[in-house]
Amino acid sequence: MNGIEEEYMSGIEEEHMNRIKEEHMSGIEEEHMNRIKEEHMSGIEEEHMNRIKEEHMSGIEEEHMNRIKEEHMSGIEEEHMNRIKEEHMSGIEEEHMNRIKEEHMSGIEEEHMNRIKEEHMSGIEEEHMNRIKEEHMSGIEEEHTNRVEEEHMSGIKEEHRNGIEEKHMNGIEEELTNGIKEEHMQSFRHAA
Predict the structure, then answer these.
(1) Where on the tree of life does the source sit, at the highest rank (predicted)?
(2) CB atoms near residue 147 (< 10 Å)
(3) Sign (positive/negative) of CA torsion 170, 174, 180, 181?
(4) pTM above 0.85?
(5) What is the DSSP string of 26-91?
């Protein structure tokens, strides 16, 4: 009976040990699965937070850029209107204004200068010439300035030369003002 009892007991113990091992392993697996789940969730949350952060930043940047654009445009319009006010000339024909409209771009060609030569009438004061010099945009080379100086006709008074900055003239039609406005805005859009 002792031998049978021992075998019986050792069988029970072995089965008991196997059960403990299985429970231990399933506990470890469950804990492992929980950890994987947590890591997966924290990875998802982090990625989600990063995406929210990026979307938030890109929204802020877009709003910032729009504000800068609006401020830039309103500044340009105000400066443009002030310049137009100062630039009214008295005896310039409509053909001249249409040509200026087409030619006010950063890379004004030599043809522009030849036209200006033809259109400078003897009654235009020197004040007009100096303003035109200063107002030609950044693409006009020094050669352009030198040519304008050489092209002053004999009837242009010296006052005309120094005073182009204050170019107040009165006989220009509304088309002139609208044309200059469109040109200036176009060139600023290109620059932006």
Answers:
(1) Eukaryota
(2) 16
(3) positive
(4) no
(5) HHHHHHHHHHHHHHHHHHHHHHHHHHHHHHHHHHHHHHHHHHHHHHHHHHHHHHHHHHHHHT--SS
